[in-house]
Amino acid sequence: MLDKNDIELLEKLLDKRFVESNEKTERMFAEADKKTERMLAESNEKTKRMFVEADKKTERMFMEFDKKTEERISETENMVLEEMERTREILEGHLDQVKENLDEMKQYYQIHKLEKQSTEILMKLVDELRRRVEALEKKTA
User: Fold this and answer.
1) Interval 93-106 mean pLDDT
2) Which intervals of the chain form a coiled coil (predicted)?
C-alpha cells in the first residue's frame, strides 16, 4: 500500500500534470483565438477588397450607361433636327407653290376685271350706238 508521502507525491504529480494540461489547453485556445482573429481579419480585408472592386465596377457601369444614354440622346436630337429641316424644306416648297398659285390667281383676277371693265365699256358704247342709230332712224323716218 501507498503511504502518505507517496500519496502526496502522487497528488503533487497530478496537480503538476493538471496545471500543465490547463496551460497547454490555454495555449491552444490562445493560438486558436489568434488564428481565428487572423482569419477574420483576412476575411474582412478580402470582403473590403471585394466591395471596393464591386463599387468600382458599379461606377464603371454607371459611367458607361451615362455615356450610352448621352450618345442616344445626341443621336435622337440629331434625328429630330434633321427631320425638322426636311419638313421645313418640304413646307417651304409647298409655300412657294401656294405663292405661285396666288400670283396666278391675282393675274387671272386682274385679267377678268379688265375684261369685265372692257365689256362694260363696250356695252355702253353699243347702247350709245343703238340710241344714236335709233335717233337717226327716227330722224330719217
Assistant:
1) 97
2) 81-139
Percent of the chain whose predicted confidence (pLDDT) is above 70: 99
The set of cell numbers assigned to 110 is 386682274
Virtual CA dihedral for 92, 93, 94, 97, nearest 10 degrees?
120
* Helix, strand, coil percentages in the chain from 3-state DSSP, rounded to 5: 95, 0, 5
Q: How far apart are CA 14 and CA 12, in angstroms?
A: 5
CA separation for the pair 53, 47 (Å, rounded)? 10
Q: How far apart are CA 119 and CA 10, in angstroms?
A: 158
Could you give the CA distance from residue 37 to residue 35 in angstroms, rounded to a whole number? Answer: 5
pLDDT > 80? residue 1: no
Q: What digits encode the pLDDT tens for the residues 123-132? A: 999 999 999 9
